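anyone seen this seq b4? input:
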Amino acid sequence: MADGYREADGRRRQQVGGLLIGLTGLVFTVLTWRDALTTGAFSVRSAIAFPAFAVVGIALLFMPGYKEERRARGEDLTGKRGWRLLTLRWWLVLALALAAGFLNLFVLGA
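predicted toks r here
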């Protein structure tokens, strides 16, 4: 019973973190756009990173993390670290995040 509470608490923390990351990414994306429109200049790193953060944050809000996904499937995580822990779903989230960042850069530069 205690494990269920810990899991729910961990998921709630993940969702709050995702909300904060997503909102931060969105706010700074808007600020990057404001700078680009008012001064004509913007940071390339900001143009790519902030939309990517927004996508990852939104994904954390609505999907379980990669470790939780693997544990729910009963997988053994022993010996797996870093990139090896990512599931196909999270690789797709990362690809979408990078695509959003580069699309934002492309549109800002146009």
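The chain has a mean pLDDT of 90. Residues 27 and 50 are 8 Å apart (CA to CA). kinda curious what u guys think
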